[in-house]
Amino acid sequence: MSFLEVRDLHASIDEKEILTGLNLSLNKGEVHAIMGPNGSGKSTFANVLLGHPKYSLTSGNILVKGESILNLTTDERAKKGLFLAFQYPTEISGVGYSHFLRNAYNTLNKSLGQEQEREVFLTVREFHDYVKRNLEAVGLDPSFLSRYLNEGFSGGEKKRSEVMQMLVLRPNLAILDEPDSGLDIDAVKAVAEAINKLIETGAGLLVITHYARILRYLSKIDYIHVMAKGKIIKSGNRELSEELEVKGYNWLGLEEK
Ligand SMILES: Nc1ncnc2c1ncn2[C@@H]1O[C@H](COP(=O)(O)OP(=O)(O)OP(=O)(O)O)[C@@H](O)[C@H]1O
Ligand SMILES: [Mg+2]
């Protein structure tokens, strides 16, 4: 049975249909990348997976381990081990970063503790040391822990921070929406290495990106999918991303936008 099964998904916003019959199945621990032109619905798909209230699902289904999650709230989906790193993370003033992470981690320990081996940190200091190691892995200074969530973070710092949260929280399936956009050259490699650490834990990944570069650094890729006009129109292996980088999307029969 697949970990994630998406069947003929249709979703709209303000009466406009954005997802037009999307199918995808991802087995436990698999790494899939989604590429595709601007506006093809990639972020919409990521948001719909986590149950963003902005979108209405008109038909189709999303199953995690064989059970539909359509009636679950976003936090219930997170407790099943789904994690989304946003394309545009929002600044949340007043929410301390360290406090936020510790709460989220402890909450997930309750729901995922039985199926995963998760560390239990008894003191705040132990937890901080754990987070600091992960901050280091993405090249962020420990002082970020005493800031408010994303407030005043640069574009690249927000991206590093999202991936850092993923490492700390240890989801079963991480959905990363353009984790490489706006990153400097060294950061792309650091972020890819952080993603590789999650892959080592046996987690599945869905990475949305426009560039083959980050994918080259990933320790494994099972499928590359091309999304256009709200559905997946082609799937292939690692080479497909290189081919797209050279040829663009037009050869797939998509007219220029
Ligand atoms: N409130 C809205 N009203 C109308 N159309 C919308 C609304 N929100 C999003 N859309 C449209 O939905 C389409 C899909 O957007 P989405 O953000 O999913 O694309 P994307 O594939 O992630 O693109 P990119 O590569 O640029 O990030 C776009 O054409 C966008 O303009
Ligand atoms: Mg997007």
Write up what this structure looks like.
This protein has helices at 42-49, 74-79, 97-112, 124-137, 155-169, 185-200, 212-217, 238-247; strands spanning 4-13, 16-26, 31-35, 56-64, 67-68, 82-85, 92-96, 148-149, 173-177, 204-208, 223-228, 231-236. Helix 5 runs parallel beside helix 6. It is globular and about 55 Å long. It has a single domain, classed as Rossmann fold. The chain is α/β, with parallel strands linked by helices. The strands form three sheets. It has a six-stranded mixed β-sheet, with helices on both faces. It has a four-stranded antiparallel β-sheet with strand order 2-1-4-5, with helices on one face. The termini are far apart. The chain contains eight helices and twelve strands. Helix content is 35%, strand content 27%. It binds adenosine-5'-triphosphate and magnesium ion. Adenosine-5'-triphosphate (ATP) binds next to strand 2 and helix 1.
Tell me the helix content.
25-40%
Report how far the terminal alpha carbons are from each other. Answer: 38 Å
How are the strands ordered across the major sheet? 6-9-10-3-11-12
Shape, principal axes of CA atoms: globular
Quickly name the level 1 CATH class.
Answer: Alpha Beta
Secondary-structure element order, as H and E?
EEEHEEHEEHHEHEHEHEEH
Structural class: alpha/beta
What is the count of helical runs?
Answer: 8
Largest sheet: 6 strands, mixed
In total, the number of domains comes to: 1
Report the CATH topology name. Rossmann fold
Assembly annotation: single chain
> Can you give the mean pLDDT?
95
Binned strand content:
25-35%
pLDDT < 50 stretches: none
Q: Report the count of strand segments.
A: 12
